[in-house]
Amino acid sequence: MTATNTEMLVGLESVKDTPPDSNDASAASANHGQATGATSDATEAGDATATVSAEYRRANFAVIRDSILGNLRYPVLARRKGWSGQVEVAFLIAPDGNVSELRIKASSGFAVLDDQAVAAIRRSAPFPPPRMAALLVMPITFQLD
User: Fold this and answer.
1) Per-residue model confidence (pLDDT) at position 90
2) Could you tell me the residue range of the domain that residue 109 belongs to?
């Protein structure tokens, strides 16, 4: 069952503009052949990925948000039990618009909410393709009125 705006609030408007942590930058760079193993090269590749990610988010945020919101459902079990929480999800959007490296950075404390956030992102792909892989970190808040 699809949740209406009166049944839940989703905090997708606060996508982080911070550069990815070193693990995220390395993973993104390694997947696209940019990491050479040298610290300065990896840092530069991480900076380039962060810059592209920030530009991509600014240009495509509304489309990404609307797509995820359209695929997000408040789990029946969570609604019945009155569970709410915020899930922070990180994922990489590849140059073809598909999602990879999708993971929970911070759990809501309820697996059913975490799983729904991940499923909504998977159902929403493909997204507008970036010129190179773009890392996004999104908090998704499930809250009953």
Assistant:
1) 95
2) 12-142
